[in-house]
Amino acid sequence: MFVWVLNCNMIATSLDVAVIRKDFPILKRKVNGYPLIYLDNAATSQTPKQVIDVIVDYYSNYNANIHRGVHALSQEATDRYEQARHKIQKHFNAAKPHEIIFTSGTTHSINLVANGFTTLLNKGDELLVSAMEHHSNIVPWQMLCERTGAILKVIPMNLEGELIMADYHSLLSPKTKLVFCNHVSNALGTINPIEEIIEAAHRVGSAVLIDGAQAAAHIKPDLRKLDVDFYTVSAHKICGPTGVGMLYGKEAWLNKLPPYQGGGEMIAEVSFEKTTYADLPHKFEAGTPNICGGIAFGAALDYMNQIGFDAIASYEHELLVYATEQLSQIKGLKIYGTAVHKTSVISFNIEGLHPYDIGTILDKLGIAVRTGHHCAQPIMDFYKIPGTVRASFSFYNTKKEIDVLVNGIKKAQSMLQ
Amino acid sequence: MTIKEIQNEIVEEFSMFDDWMQRYEYMIELGKSLPLIEEKYKTDDNIIKGCQSKVWVHAELKDDKLVFTADSEAIITKGIIAILIRAFSNQRPRDIIEADTQFIDDIGLKEHLSPTRANGLVSMIKQLKLYAVAYQTQLG
User: Does domain A52-305 have CATH number 3.40.50.300?
Assistant: First the structure.
């Protein structure tokens, strides 16, 4: 599946993309008569055979409802589901397995926390949000502010797409109760200085939620070392299935938050007079969960860890540098998001052309990119543009594919101008 | 010409092309001939929702016939509107209400008719027909 290329210090420096590509059945297909070139990885990643096999195995061999079942299948499914939780805990270095809450994904995770803070905030409390959030990390907090009378303040960014940290520090005060920010921006690829953000917020007694949806495919965060209070991930962006993700929360915080949804699984005792809630993590996992999804989430982490995050990061950086060089040579092309630290995401526009037109022609050539505001309208307003074309690269993409993209853009340019 | 006759004419024009690239190039050319909406009508009220690029459409009645003008930020979208408006503009509201849009499929632009596609072609057709319904009511 993967091949290490070792140097004399025995440090992994590269990965064998040709071998890795064979793990992804979808990469063999054609779109509009052309070989698929999938460059929409920031929206969702493709799924390797190793994860697909786990999904097929679950439904073929041990599909059952988990927890409290006395029969063999239920116990087997429960074991595998809880093993997945342990894998996720280990991967993100959480202190305890019950600090990992299975959710349907990042949006669900953020809503869970935002809902929980309803009873913890007072009128006039302040929440800080970064200027480069996607709608999922803005709207739930706006709704929270409407419920509580808390005030939402924005940490501004510069033209390169980096947060202005001096402004962040001056926005922080004892009134600050929560800071939320993405680890990596979906529209720009910026890697935010979350260590500094977390540490400074803690100094004024504020909690911090980091949205890791865009980071987890490129970076292996050490949550204990980061000392972050909440961290969210969607499995489908890291080679897992859709509809499953996680909320990491420090035990003390998760105990403080009230349950989000009521139902089965999350109770200890129920009578019509009073219900007592189950312990963590079940308190936040009402109803039958996405069992297969949770198990496949664990398998996706196994897959990526086998390749190795250092190798992934170094190869993707190589793709980013190459793509930036090649795209910059196209006449009239402007890249949005030129932060010093960024992942393999390039958002761009071409002078005089609408992103939708470019995306449509690229699609006809079998090249999948994303166009539009990327669910981050405030960023587009900041740059005063209707949207961008976004190409996002994964460890299974190649430089040759970037060449095809560049030629495709040139083709679109000649057709549209 | 009736809507059907115009649609057949468009289908015939597009049948001359062998591949998608030529069809798209022709569509982009047609976009340049789109009867442009007057600036004063480019209001938020006239924006068609469901489009990734902004699309404005204006309708007015001239001698019992409905005349459409429009514009879009995106060239391909402009081409699609130009094709639609060529078929529907200068027609009686009743005929517009009753017309079908099978010809979009016949000229190989079926993919743009998917309701999930962000170009809003479906909303565009709905809007043209809504105008026709409104003016038909006015005509009695």
Answer: no
Residue A367 is predicted with a pLDDT of 98
**Of A70-79, A262-271, A352-361, which gets the smallest average pLDDT?**
A262-271
Give the closest of A353, A356, A415 to B24, CB-based: A415
Best CA proximity match to A243, nearest among A101, A107, A104: A104
The answer to whether residue B82 is catalytic is no
Q: What fold characterizes domain B3-139? A: Sufe protein. Chain: A (3.90.1010)
pLDDT, position A261: 86
DSSP A117: G
Instruction: Indicate the domain borders of chain B.
Output: 3-139
Q: Which two tokens stand for residue A52?
A: 């697909």
Which residues does chain B have within 8 Å of residue A416's beta carbon, measured at their own beta carbons?
28, 75-76
Q: pLDDT tier at B117 (50, 70, 90 boundaries)?
A: low
Q: Which of residues 336-395 of A touch B (CB under 8 A)?
A: 353-357, 360-361, 364, 371-372, 386-387
pLDDT exceeds 90 at position A7: no
Instruction: Nearest by CB to A387, from B21, B25, B52: name it.
Output: B52
At residue A1, the pLDDT reads 43
Fold of A5-31+308-416: Aspartate Aminotransferase, domain 1 (3.90.1150)
How does DSSP assign A273-295, residue by residue? Answer: S-EEEPPTTGGG--SS--HHHHH
The answer to whether the Cβ–Cβ distance between B52 and A356 falls below 8 Å is yes
How many Å apart are CA A308 and CA A251, to the nearest integer? 29
Q: Do B25 and A415 touch (CB under 8 A)?
A: yes
- Predicted pLDDT of residue B50: 65
B75-88 vs B121-139: helix crossing angle, rounded to 10: 30
- Spatial separation of the C-alpha atoms in residues A361 and B28, rounded to whole Å: 12
Residue A297, pLDDT > 60, answer: yes
- Report the complex ipTM: 0.87
Residues of A classed as catalytic:
375
**Residue A115 has which token pair?**
């809902």
For chain A, what is the total number of helices (H) and then of strands (E)? 14, 19
Q: What is the pLDDT of residue A5?
A: 42
**Secondary structure (DSSP) of A349-386:** EETT--HHHHHHHHHHTTEE-EEE-TT-HHHHHHHT-S
Percent of chain A with pLDDT over 70: 97
Apex A72 CA angle, A71 and A75, nearest 5: 90
User: What are the tens digits of pLDDT across the range B74-111?
Assistant: 898 899 899 999 999 999 999 999 999 889 888 877 77
Q: What are the phi and psi torsion angles at A367 (to 5°)?
A: -105, 120
Ramachandran class of A148: left when φ > 0, alpha when ψ lies in -120 to 50, beta otherwise: alpha
Amino acid symbol at B104: I
Q: Is the pLDDT of residue A6 over 60?
A: no
Task: Enumerate the domain spans of chain A.
Answer: 5-31+308-416, 52-305
